[in-house]
Amino acid sequence: MDASETPRPKRPPSYVDAIAPLVLLVVLIAGGLFLYGLDALGGPIPAALVVCSMATGIIVLRSGHTWSEVEDAIKRAVASVVSAIFILLAVGALIGTWNLAGTIPTLVYYGIRWIDPNFYYVSTAVICALTSMSIGSSWTTAGTVGVGLVGIASLLGVSPAITAGAVISGAYLGDKTSPLSETTVLASQLAGADLYTHIRAQAWTSVPAFLIGAVVFAILGLSGEGVLPDDTAASADLKQLGQLYWISLWNLLPLLALLGMSLKKSPSALAILTASLFAGLLGIFTQPEVFQRFVADPELATPLVYVKGIWSAMATGFESNSGLADVDRLLSRGGMDSMLGTIWLIIGAVSFGTLLQEFGLIGKLIDPLIARATTDGRLFATTAGTAFGLNVVAADQYIALVLPVKTFKKEFAQRGFAPQVLSRVAADAGTVTSPLVPWNSCGAFMAAVLGVPTLLYMPFCFFNILSPILTVLYGATGFQIARTRPKEER
What we know:
Blueprint: H1 15-36, H2 44-62, H3 67-80, H4 82-101, H5 103-114, H6 120-135, H7 138-156, H8 160-177, H9 182-191, H10 195-222, H11 232-244, H12 253-263, H13 268-286, H14 288-295, H15 302-315, H16 325-331, H17 340-358, H18 361-372, H19 376-393, H20 397-414, H21 419-431, H22 441-450, H23 454-457, H24 462-477
């Protein structure tokens, strides 16, 4: 038997055990950013997360656990993100076929025609909020409508980074308040709150945060932030798109199909992949010339050109070779292989986070914080800080949502807070801050599908930044804090 498998007395982790992996993570991430800049997210940081996972495994072994236990925890970690991995692969395929079939070019074409650049950011936030609230998924919203809106931004001359911030702000408003959102349902169930009571409680922080963000987006747009002095370039881009594709509302049928499947609560990965295939098949009839240019094999029979075109767009993405630099840069994207780096990052992150959680390293740090939260304001700040901290160190939205609710549920109940108060705090600080962390599964996803690094769009995710601030402020002042019993009894 391997020495690491020999049963030994288990001891609880020490503070050094709990802090050492976090210090190593900070050192490696800082070193990666120093040496590689934003390129660190493409390889060095995922590698650092794997190293941190192995280092945590060694600490766990020293505490008396076996390597089999470590491996089992990592297996559970990877199993927990299988659905996210399939969604990522499906979104990569969708971006490729939607560019091939003209769906994204059509969204860009009409977006340039209909949206005033001066109100582009606020329009983006509202469009994504309405979409996400109707389907309950921030990832689907960002991976479809959001991709088109960021693409339009680069052609209009407005900032892609600010646009990505507006996409994420709108997408997470819906993710946090829609009854169709799995995180909304999960937060209410864990805290023991009625779903619609939870949503009404969410509105008190979500609506003001979104409205403040919308005002800031409007000011940025009206101030001319990144806006072209005239529409000459945009008009030229419209002509170029019109020459390369048959622009028609028919091209938006895959988007409507995806929205319909999402409203019927079809599995996300299945719905996205189906919409991807549907777009490819539709493109055979609407964009045959695009297929010919993309495959560029005159000796191949026409039916095989269509098969190879769809297959290649799904696997390695669509590549535009029109010779028009702006259009080629916009459309040459997608493919399942474009998501492999993001999947590597997510696997490393959740493995690290799960080891910290399952072997008590996070609990070792959180328990003293609860003991020191002697006032309501401190309790809210501690809960919100824990949720955000878990997004950083555990790198997974669900851990950041579930663990604070489980950890603080008893304390909130003892102090007489209604269940929806805890569920709101966890969602405000756990759900919406996840895309602000580059190595978090949500941050990695948003950066991958929108094509904007997390650290560039992060300052403009006003809704995501304001939500935890408001929830802590409400806790400190007692504003809109529901109670289960009067103050005299408490």
